Amino acid sequence: MKLNKMIPQFALALAAVTASGAAMAQKDCCPFSDANLKESPVQLQNATSQLLQLKGVEFTWKETQKKDIGLIAQDVQAVYPQLVQPMPLPNGKGEALTVDYDKLAAPLIESIRELNQRIEELEKARASAK
Question: Is 1 within the bounds of a domain?
C-alpha cells in the first residue's frame, strides 16, 4: 500500500472521538480526561457483571496470519457501545469496528472496587462468625 493512501487512515486513528462525535487531535499520547470538559459524571455501576459479558479471545488475523489476543468488537458494542466506532479499512474497501481499549480501564477499576467490597464483607462475616 502506498504511503499517501495510508496517511488519511493514520490521521483518523490518531484522532480521539468525543461522545458528541467531534474529533479532538491528540498531540502526545492521551485523550482529554479533564473534569472541566465533562458534564454530569456518574460512577459506573455493575461493572463486574458487565465485564463478565465480554470474552477475551485468542485469534489469528486473516490478512497476516499473525496470532493475537483481544476482544470481539461486536461483543464490546453490546455492553459498552460508546467504546466501539467504525473505521475505514486501510485498503479502502469498507469499514470495520474498532475498540477503544483504553476506556476499558474505567470499568476494570470499578470492578476491582466492587470485588474488593465483596471481599471485605466476606472477611467481616467470617470474623464475626468466630
Answer: no
